[in-house]
Amino acid sequence: MLQMVHTVTAHLPMSSERKQNFINETKNNLILSQLYLYYLKGWPTEHKVLNNCKQFFKLKDNIYF
Q1: Superkingdom, according to UniProt (predicted)?
Q2: Cα distance between residue 32 and residue 53, in whole Å
Q3: 52 or 65: which carries more pLDDT confidence?
Q4: Is residue 56 assigned to a domain?
Q5: Contact (CB, 8 A) for 39 and 63
């Protein structure tokens, strides 16, 4: 099953507890946490991207945290 979060904005009404849960779940998800690191540190060349993240390489310029 494909799971995707398209957009979460700063204007989304969310309690502090729910926001913290969202942050924690992102950190605990292997793929999302790796994508976050690529976002922060820059993407490596395509052949160096971890296998579980290769499907996102073509979208890298459209991924924001």
Answers
A1: Eukaryota
A2: 9
A3: 52
A4: yes
A5: yes
Closest CA to 60 of 32, 3, 10, 42: 42
Task: Determine, yes or no, domain membership for 6.
Answer: no
Which structural domain, as residue segments, surrounds residue 33? 16-62
Predicted confidence (pLDDT) per residue in 2-54, tens digit: 555 656 666 677 888 988 888 898 889 999 999 999 999 999 999 999 999 99
Q: Which two tokens stand for residue 26?
A: 């992102």
pTM: 0.73
Q: How many CA atoms lie within 13 A of 33 on its CB side?
A: 8
Residue 4 lies in a domain: no
Provide the domain count of the chain. Answer: 1
